[in-house]
């Protein structure tokens, strides 16, 4: 029998490695920016076309490469950073595996131009899908330009898995922001489709944060600074009152490298415990300096995951440091989200002592039953003779949602924990999540209205001005026509703000800021653009924004109306976001428990 094990050709091995390193255009951006920083550049330009699907180019003024190195850098595991295994635990650079350029070249067309300061001429190298095309001398300034075109041209299945331009652009900007935040002393430019997105001059950390996320973020930041033998911590955390419902502006850097660490993120949340409402997320920009031998960043190809030698100690230090910073800058009020402020004792009465004991007056002649007409016990059973308590249940083969709708008999509902509604059906009980049920009702209502195209706008007496960072404003501009078609009218839109002159009549004026926050969050989700209805997104956001919240008390009439409308929906079982609206408990299940 012939041998069946053989070595893979280099171009296939490179494509497999590319699957780990190059997941999307943003992966290319990350690797090229980090290479520029490792080359000692202090001025870096990123030029992107069509969300990176057509072209990604990074130009730097770093040290450049010789003609030999320009060719060698595309070989697998070709690196100048490590020479022995021990070097993996003494890393001071971004890249070290020697996989990035080889992986990128395996799935795209790459043109590299590079020149060292001591060389008279530079070198241009062209590679297509790991295949070397040409190398020739060129005249150019000192530095390097890497131009990546037609990503995944030779792997159509991978290219088809890319998301919409909005989503892919968001990922690219996220990577750009992470690198720019890690190196505030460097100058960065970013252009998308020949349009400037960022021009970040050399600055201190706070100015860099403000230049990326808008000047309004300046008032949100609380400085953090702590030095210990184990770790030096610096950076900023957001004030509790600026915590958001959606994640964002959360950055951990270890030795100037962006990392993801759920364990350390939990330390931040623990520091904010009692200061922010549940399901809200604080912002933070924290920089950790640790000995290189105490961490392992070689556990994942993208190098965003990290392993710490003293993880538990770091957790305690971070938590204590953030709590101390919040307390030092007087932003740690004790909050009780269930407290009724109307029951608080006024400050002017807190330390007062009553001059005399208040008198107690009793009306001994009071009789609560005097002149009260007593109803006869027979009246309690009025109408009972018309009810058939022994009527058998009808069998049906309808789907569950239709079955419950058909079985619902309009019995009086009961609210439980201001979150659920309990109602009777012929076969037992149904338990309904009031918020999700209302979301489903509103979603189908708005979807119908938006699809009909009959949108009524309501003018504002005083226009509302909302501020967002540059990236969010770009998303709003791209969706401007869609928003205007659905009832919004904008008086002015600039780089960091928009002024609203009119809004859809079905939206409350007070929830307009929340609507836009949800709208922007939805645009950043992983949703394929080609098969995605923007009207559907707006209907979902409207439903989420206007739905009754958990903790709201409902009158019996409101409860019954909610249940009636839910069972009139096309899909009462699930909310617009795929979560269950209801569950049933049959008579048999109840009897087993009793």
Give a verbal description of the structure.
- It is a single chain.
- By secondary structure, this protein is α+β, with helices and mostly antiparallel strands.
- It folds into three domains: 10-202, Histidine kinase-like ATPase, C-terminal domain (Heat Shock Protein 90); 206-328, 2-Layer Sandwich (Ribosomal Protein S5, domain 2); 395-594, formyl-coa transferase, domain 3, CATH 3.30.1540.20.
- Helix content is 31%, strand content 22%.
- The chain has 17 helices and 22 strands.
- An eight-stranded mixed beta sheet has the order 5-4-3-6-2-1-7-8.
- The model is unreliable at 81-89, 332-345, 375-400 and 526-532 (pLDDT under 50).
CATH architecture of the largest domain: 2-Layer Sandwich
The radius of gyration is: 32 Å
Instruction: State the separation between the terminal residues, measured CA to CA.
Output: 69 Å
Number of domain modules? 3
Number of helices: 17
Biggest sheet features = 8 strands, mixed
Based on Cα principal axes, name the global outline. globular
Strand content: 15-25%
CATH superfamily of the largest domain: MutL, C-terminal domain, dimerisation subdomain
Oligomer: single chain
The tally of beta strands, per DSSP, is 22
Q: Kindly provide the name of the CATH class of the largest domain.
A: Alpha Beta
Mean pLDDT: 79
CATH fold assignment of the largest domain:
formyl-coa transferase, domain 3
Structural class: alpha+beta
Strand order of the largest sheet: 5-4-3-6-2-1-7-8
Helix percentage: 25-40%
Poorly predicted tracts of residues: 81-89, 332-345, 375-400, 526-532
């Amino acid at each position: 029998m012939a041998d069946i094990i053989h070595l893979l050709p280099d171009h296939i091995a490179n494509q497999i490695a590319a699957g780990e390193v190059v997941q999307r255009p943003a992966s290319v951006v990350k690797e090229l920016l980090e290479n520029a920083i490792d080359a000692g550049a202090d001025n870096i330009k990123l030029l992107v076309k069509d969300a990176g699907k057509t072209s990604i180019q990074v130009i730097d003024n770093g040290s450049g490469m010789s003609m030999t190195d320009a060719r060698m850098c595309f070989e697998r595991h070709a690196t100048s950073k490590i020479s022995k295994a021990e070097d993996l635990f003494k890393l001071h650079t971004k890249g070290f595996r020697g996989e990035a350029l080889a992986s990128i070249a395996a799935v795209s067309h790459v043109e590299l131009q590079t020149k060292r300061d001591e060389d008279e001429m530079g070198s241009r190298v062209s590679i297509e899908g790991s295949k070397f095309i040409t190398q020739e001398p060129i005249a150019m300034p000192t530095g390097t330009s890497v131009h990546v075109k037609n990503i995944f041209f030779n792997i159509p299945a991978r290219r088809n898995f890319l998301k919409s331009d909005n989503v892919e652009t968001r990922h690219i900007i996220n990577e750009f922001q992470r690198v720019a935040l890690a190196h505030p002393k460097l100058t960065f430019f970013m252009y998308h489709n020949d349009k400037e997105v960022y021009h970040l001059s050399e600055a201190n950390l706070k100015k860099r944060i403000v230049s990326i996320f808008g000047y309004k973020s300046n008032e949100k930041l609380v400085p953090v600074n702590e030095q210990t033998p184990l770790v030096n911590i610096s950076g900023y955390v957001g004030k509790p009152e600026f915590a958001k419902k959606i994640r964002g502006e959360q950055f951990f850097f270890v030795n100037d490298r962006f990392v993801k660490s759920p364990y350390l993120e939990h330390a931040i949340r623990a520091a904010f415990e009692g200061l922010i409402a549940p399901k809200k997320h604080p912002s933070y920009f924290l920089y950790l300096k640790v000995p290189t031998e105490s961490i392992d960043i070689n556990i994942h190809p993208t190098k965003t995951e990290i392993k710490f030698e003293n993880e538990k100690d770091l957790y305690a230090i971070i938590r204590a440091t953030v709590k101390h910073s919040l307390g030092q800058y007087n932003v740690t009020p004790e909050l009780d989200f269930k407290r009724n402020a109307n029951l608080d004792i006024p400050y002017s009465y807190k330390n007062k002592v009553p001059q005399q004991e208040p008198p107690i007056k009793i009306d001994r002649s009071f009789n609560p039953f005097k002149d009260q007409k007593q109803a006869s016990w027979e009246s309690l059973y009025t109408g009972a003779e018309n009810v058939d308590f022994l009527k058998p249940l009808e069998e049906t083969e309808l789907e569950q949602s239709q079955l419950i709708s058909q079985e619902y008999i309009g019995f009086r509902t009961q609210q439980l924990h201001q979150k659920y509604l309990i109602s009777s059906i012929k076969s037992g009980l149904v338990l309904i999540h009031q918020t999700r049920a209302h979301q489903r009702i509103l979603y189908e209502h708005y979807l119908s209205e938006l699809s009909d195209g009959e949108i009524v706008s309501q003018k504002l007496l005083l226009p509302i001005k909302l501020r967002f960072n540059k990236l969010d404003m770009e998303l709003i501009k791209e969706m401007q026509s869609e928003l205007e078609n659905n009832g919004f009218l904008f008086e002015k839109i600039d780089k960091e703000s928009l002024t609203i002159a009119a809004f859809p009549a079905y939206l409350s004026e007070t929830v307009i800021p929340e609507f836009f926050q949800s709208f922007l969050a939805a645009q950043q989700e992983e949703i394929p653009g080609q098969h995605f209805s923007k009207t559907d997104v707006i209907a979902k956001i409207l439903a989420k924004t206007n739905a009754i919240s958990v903790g709201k008390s409902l009158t019996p009439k409101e409860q019954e109306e909610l249940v009636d409308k839910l069972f009139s929906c096309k899909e009462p079982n699930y909310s617009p976001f795929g979560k269950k609206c209801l569950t049933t408990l049959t008579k048999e299940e109840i009897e087993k428990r009793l």
